Please model this.
Amino acid sequence: MYAQAVSTTAANTDPASHGVCRGPGLRAVNHVAAVSSLQTKAPGETLFSEGDETDCVFEVVRGMLRLYKLLPDGRRQITGFLSAGHLLGFAPEGVCIYTAEAITEVTLCRYKRTTFERLIDEVPGFAKRLLTAASHELRAAQDQMLLLGRKTATEKVASFLLLIAGQQGGDRVDVPMTRSDIADHLGLTVETVCRTITRLKQDRVIELLTPSRIKIVDRGQLEELAVGEGDTGF
Amino acid sequence: MYAQAVSTTAANTDPASHGVCRGPGLRAVNHVAAVSSLQTKAPGETLFSEGDETDCVFEVVRGMLRLYKLLPDGRRQITGFLSAGHLLGFAPEGVCIYTAEAITEVTLCRYKRTTFERLIDEVPGFAKRLLTAASHELRAAQDQMLLLGRKTATEKVASFLLLIAGQQGGDRVDVPMTRSDIADHLGLTVETVCRTITRLKQDRVIELLTPSRIKIVDRGQLEELAVGEGDTGF
DNA sequence: CGCAAACTTGATGTTGCTCAAGCTAGGTGG
DNA sequence: CCACCTAGCTTGAGCAACATCAAGTTTGCG
Model:
């Protein structure tokens, strides 16, 4: 019940942040560690699928997940990438509304939903924490809607790179997800993502150290491109 | 703080629902009416703008609002339409992350954020209510991401019509928003929305009683079209 | 009844998709 | 250790869906 995918720490004032947080996770909260259990998933493994009935809430302790929804013909929309500190729960009806899969090796902390609900009542400030986290998720979702509905391919890719760079705090960005994952998150095709990255590289805005390791060369330019102020040939 | 746009009642099991609820609003909750004040907005009036600093939380009592975000060049994404029973608050940082405007005449109930926070601590079950509501909003946001990122124009329009029809519970749907609003919600242009509606009309899936009053003639067909199973000429 | 905003329709244009083909890298087994 | 093998990445050519630009038409209100 409750939040479907929320971060578990309050502080994150970075406007570009997609719901990420790097403080201590829920497990660090009083009373919580005692009622949880740890588990691990290998890359590609499914945590649960859209439509599954479950009664668990998970917290990501380490690694990265993708959450996605599918259309009947297989079109996929990745609604978010979750890293350490994020919670993923379930619809109030107890039916999962998205599939969750490990991208990297992932360590998770699992709670029974009933236990989780009890914590809300018993642990002071816990509910507020969750509400704040949910609020951040909602904002991230709205940013993503603006991206999906109104941004061009270049703007989408630039926004995405800045977002994950912001999470990692540096100009060398590690990209654990595939181009296909990125495409399905941005509402593009793999080919368009590739071509766009190539153009950014050619324009000396970024460098590709390896396909999954990107260096941001001109952050200012990238930021302009992300909101459509980049009329320098794009 | 807390939820940015949440409905205030728990029950809504309709999977197509975009966070709407028709139970009693927050104002009906114990203790709450006493600390709130009512106000009214005319169609087109702005409640607050993206970037504004505020310390209020609103509940929609009557009428409909649009929430949107803008890009620097004016491109607009409407992240949601809010009707009676919905809450709209603010980013935890106290800065609005979207603009809220009245579509119809709107009656609102306003709370100080500090008051609102106190209620979370003092009123039993209030926090859980808000969390459930936030969870529904998050689900609606994820559905919208799937729509924006992966659906075709026809699928988008069909999904939208079913969504507002679901909120109104009948086959005659009142569409208070303009075509331009619909376009900016679905990530399309006005012209594409018009043409798509025209085609649905020609195919006897819907009828246009007036431009803002639509009758669903073949709901089954519309539902198939909404998820991409409509290979009947579309 | 007139006016302005909203809606509709048509002709043309462009972005990003599709289909097709190579390329690269990292992991595995001989 | 190296060479193969496969998943993922990249690039190209052509195309289609939707956008843009440009008129008209309807609607509802003053």
In short: Residues 9-24 of chain A have pLDDT under 50 and may be disordered. Residues 73 and 121 of chain A are 42 Å apart (CA to CA). Chain A touches chain B through 52 residues (CB under 8 Å). Helices of chain A lie at 113-122, 126-150, 153-168, 179-186, 190-202, 219-226.
